[in-house]
Amino acid sequence: MASANKRLALPSNNNEGILARVSSTISQSPIVHKGQQAASDVAYVAKRLLKSTGKAAWIAGTTFLILVVPLIIEMDREQQLTEHEMQNASLLGTPSLPAK
Length: 100
Fold this sequence. Notes:
single chain, 100 residues, mainly alpha, 3 helices, 80% helix, rod-shaped
């Protein structure tokens, strides 16, 4: 029985438990350090990518508003004017102009 008690007792030179020792050993591992560095690098690249994507979206959106929206509005006005002229021509009985 005495040998069984000795076998179950874990040697402890510090006042740390086995989980604390394993945890500290793992956290000081070079593999864990490299993994943390890789995760940090990925986060940095993702942040920069999102920032540049936001800038590109802002440039594209403002360019669309300044250049394309007025063109669409003008084309719509032209089509409404043409339809209005064709409607007036058909009401007055004058032949409509052929489409070019």
